[in-house]
Design a protein that fits this description.
Elements lengths: L3 E6 L5 H9 L17 E7 L2 E7 L12 H14 L2 E7 L6 H11 L5 E6 L6 H6 L9 E3 L8 H9 L10 H8 L2 E7 L5 H9 L17 E7 L2 E7 L12 H16 L2 E7 L6 H13 L2 E7 L6 H14 L7 E4 L12 H11 L5 H14 L4 E2 L2 E2 L1 E9 L4 E7 L6 H15 L7 E6 L13 H11 L5
Length: about 475
């Protein structure tokens, strides 16, 4: 089993920068803003030919009694409890602070190796920068510059020396980690996405707070349920573009949209008290443009009266009329009502996104659809659809070939989509039908005139009035 290394420290000392440097990724948001990281972020790193799991955490030791800082500190302590080694980052420019002394007292109580990383030492005398931190009683001190990468190679070698050599993960093991269903939870701010993620996982894995915009990073969590493997991605709330002004929020939105691209099924969370809003429909349209399978979870359903529930059902049917194949599930993420009922539609949407229909089956369906309703005329000729074959998955794509197929009007295209969807029993996923006409092989070849045709052309030109 790969060792776990927890990155801890005060806010804004460079934990996320070092996390990205060691994992060679950009999974953690980085900005000159204290308290940016709030949830535990896991990543894989290979340090001196040894595999390990790094855990980025929020700031500890300062202001943990105020607002969202308390659950942030709890998340960091949970990372320390499960870690085999603790990497404590301090600020070499700010020097030793009261928060560092308190954190040092807590870390000395651990029966785990602790490495002190003195960050931001570029341009400083390393001996002077390290001197005051030796008074804390830790012997393993490493000067680094996480931003520029200076000293990180020596740090990786020192960390790897604390663990036995482990074989590199095989391709089969990497494939196993990617197996299962990748689900992204998307929605507007403060609709209960993180609460739903914690309820699905059965633990307080991500920070939940009344403050809108609590989640900033896209947090990936892999778990198993009843023998099935899932990867759950919690994302930041996406507001209307005109209301996004802070740079941090812009990067959070970019990560949320990237999570939709990487997911196979998206759970769109809607606030039942507000109904489905224009921003919810905008997010739904983005999911459809990406071609991802979709399940709509209407959260905070338990707090509605009977009249409000009836109005919500009617409003959802009206505004989601253009996607009748989407499953809508009322839930209460806080109390767990209906959350378990999300798994069956998620499985059906995932199976539908990867259909196993072959060319023969698609051709039979196409013939039945054409026999039941012939394509329209284009000029004096009727469109002829000849054969179909699969063109991709997630979303499923069906390619139909024929004469003048590109001239098929929108209503008949929707007729084909609905026909294929019903025949293949696809649920919860968009379906794309691509129509391709036959190419004329002589379209770009010149047609030289014969000698007789040239003489006739010159004879006719004599009668043209000048």
């Amino acid at each position: 089993m790969t060792p776990v290394i927890a990155l801890v420290g005060r806010p804004n000392v460079g934990k996320s920068t070092l996390f990205n440097r060691l994992t060679r990724s950009r999974d953690a948001l980085v900005a000159d803003h204290a308290g940016l990281t709030r949830d535990r972020q896991y990543g894989h790193a290979r340090l001196a030919e040894r595999d390990c799991t790094l855990v980025d955490t929020g700031g500890m030791g300062e202001g943990e009694d105020d607002g969202v800082a308390r659950p942030m500190g709890e998340q960091a302590r949970a990372a320390v409890d499960e870690a085999d080694l603790v990497l404590w980052l301090v600020d070499g420019r700010a020097g030793l602070t009261t928060g560092d002394e308190q954190l040092a007292h807590d870390l000395r109580q651990l029966d785990k190796p602790v490495h002190v990383v003195v960050n931001k030492t570029d341009g400083l005398d390393e001996d002077v920068a390290l001197a005051e931190f030796f008074t804390l009683g830790f012997t393993r001190l490493h000067p680094v510059s996480a931003t520029h990468g200076r000293g990180t190679r020596q740090l990786a070698e020192a960390l790897a020396a604390d663990f036995p050599a482990l074989p590199a993960e095989s391709d089969a093991e990497n494939d196993a980690e990617e197996a299962g269903i990748r689900m992204a939870v998307l929605g507007r701010p403060n609709v209960g996405k993180s609460t739903l993620v914690n309820r699905l996982l059965g633990e307080d894995r991500v920070v939940v707070h009344d403050e809108a915009g609590t989640t900033r990073d896209a947090i990936r969590v892999r778990y198993e349920r009843r023998g099935e493997t899932y990867t759950l991605i919690d994302t930041a709330g996406v507001r209307r573009r005109g209301r996004v002004h802070e740079k941090v929020e812009k990067f959070s939105v970019i990560q949320a949209l990237r999570a939709v691209e990487q997911a196979q099924v998206v759970i769109l969370v809607v606030d039942a008290r507000e109904g489905i809003t224009d921003q919810d429909l905008h997010l739904l349209g983005m999911i459809l443009d990406e071609g991802r399978a979709l399940v709509v979870a209407v959260n905070k359903w338990d707090g509605l009266s009977a009249d409000q529930k009836a109005w919500n059902h009617k409003e959802l049917d009206r505004r989601l009329d253009f996607v009748p194949w989407v499953h809508v599930q009322p839930i209460s993420a806080l109390h767990g009502t209906g959350v378990g009922d999300l798994y069956p539609p998620i499985h059906r949407a995932w199976v539908s996104a990867f259909p196993d229909a072959g060319t023969n089956q698609l051709n039979r369906i196409l013939r039945q659809l054409v026999d039941a309703h012939q394509p329209p005329l284009v000029g004096r000729h009727r469109i002829k659809l000849r054969y179909a074959h699969p063109g991709g998955t997630n979303p499923p794509v069906i390619v139909v070939h024929g004469n003048q197929a590109e001239a098929v009007p929108g209503p008949y295209r929707r007729y084909l989509e609905n026909g294929f969807r019903d025949a293949l029993q696809l649920e919860g996923t968009p379906l794309r039908v691509e129509l391709r006409g036959g190419d004329n092989p002589y379209a770009h070849k010149p047609n030289p005139l014969s000698a007789r045709q040239l003489r006739r052309r010159r004879r006719l030109m004599r009668h043209v009035k000048r």
